[in-house]
Target: SIS domain-containing protein
Amino acid sequence: MSTYMAKEILDIPNVIERQHEENAAVLIELAEYLKKAKPTQIITLGRGSSYNASIYGKYLFETGLGIPVSVAAPSLSTIYKQPLIADNAILIVTSQSGKSPDLVNFALMMKERGTKIIGIINDEKSPLAKECDFLFGIKAGEEKSVAATKSFVGSLSIYAAIFAAWVEDSELADALLNLPYALDQAVNSEWPELIEHLSHAKDLFVIGRGVGLSAAVEAALKLKETCQIHAEGISASEIFHGSVSLITPQYPIISFIGSDSSRESCLEVNKKLEGYGAKVFSLDHKESSETTLVVPKVHPLLQPLVQITAYYKVIEKLSNHRGLNPDIPPNLKKVTETL
Model:
């Protein structure tokens, strides 16, 4: 069965290529503002996959700039009516549709207090896009599948581009230009061992650290949306604070192994989990075990983008293997408007 999800995964490399050219001018403008304003606080905002993307941004900015990053609670503007005290802050809001009332209201609330709004939005004519001081189009085009794929990877790419421009990291900027080549390989990934093991799975953990945590949390969401598997995305270190008690022999765990300074920690965690009897499946740039999905090696900060792209391809196949249609998950619709 050919699905919209499969077609949209194949479009991921093209999305990143379109961003390079079409967002170049606003990226230069934002970089100039950031260097001049020197923000001391970053607030991120998003729901669902867009929230997961903000986790990536948190690790980028906190590890690379030492600036604290907080994830906003949209209900502050809709339910609690409580403005934030945010001196010399910027708000980065991520959304596929740009239509959710809580995100729009929160952006308006912060804008009234003088906070600059940076938008990472796919629908550039949406109500949320109109409130942005700096608007980055995700350039994913229409996503017909309910489960977001290309818009998520596109969101991470924009986060990385903003960071590279802000800190003047030419190595990362060059890596972003070459990223579509690695993604072209990732979209054709095969992982039959995982599909077989998860044929009848009901629950599992997905783990990662640092910038890879974003991909892990997103990966868990996709299992819930498309495969009807209760999956929890969790930090590779946090799993030992209670959750490990759920592990039984052959319990499935998917591990996103980074290529940055978190790598050795991730490998060590995997060994400990295997010692408890877990069946660990890893995404890595080299074969770390017999159950590893090997993906192309790129800049360490971009490794999660390649990993999640390869993973999407496998999960689309898993959904079909379990007799499901990943395009139309039960009880879900493409645009979720929350208050």
User: Anything to note?
Assistant: The radius of gyration is 19 Å. The CA atoms of residues 205 and 243 lie 9 Å apart. Residues 189-321 form a domain with the Rossmann fold fold (CATH 3.40.50.10490). The first helix runs from residue 4 to 10.
